[in-house]
Write the structure tokens for this entry.
Amino acid sequence: MIPTLDFDFGIRKPPGAERIWALASSLRKQVLPANPEHPLEASSIASLCPRLAINGRVIEVGWDLENRVHDVDGHEVYGVCEIDTETSGTVSVSINGPLLETRPDLLLSTAAHELGHVVFDAPEILSDRCGTRRQYRTAESAARDFTTAETRSEWFANEFMGALLVPALALHRRLLTHAREERLETTKTRSFGHPAWPTVSAVNDSDALAGITDVLAQEFGVSPRFISVRLSLYGLIGRRKSLGDLK
């Protein structure tokens, strides 16, 4: 069965992020029906998503995780998504496996990021038959991917990547498990995790919170920075008050 995703292109930046997270969740439920919260690997993303039906159009995805990847100027990059209207519905995704073999977290996030370009860029480009587009992920862009994006396309790919690799509900569940083990203080605030579950209070010891963040990063196969950003975006850890807030 081909995973199916349907959406309109009217999604904008926050609060539109929630709609992108929902699409990532929908894809997880379709490709991992037995356990949608199971952590992903770069190779599993490729094997689970060889084709997608997006807005009624079937797109074949050719994955390459074995070879080095360069941009048009010959500079080595983490990955590229190549969408060419001449290829009749086939999109090529190349991930620089040799470069990232010692950084499985970057290998994973790059694969998920490029899949985001397949989901959000390919249908529009192939429908409009507007030539070829290549979306590169470089070392510099990867460092910014967690918090910023210079274009709408990159923002789409970033948010899709984040929610695909670290879903809000799964992160909320595991966070509370570790918080209870460490006897951390919780509080009732609105979050994007489970509406009935508490969140972790910001008054807890920062070293304890950092330790839990490190453990969560290992469990999801991403970096501690990645987890910190998702915890913040999902509202799962309270914000520490600044001196300005106390006035």
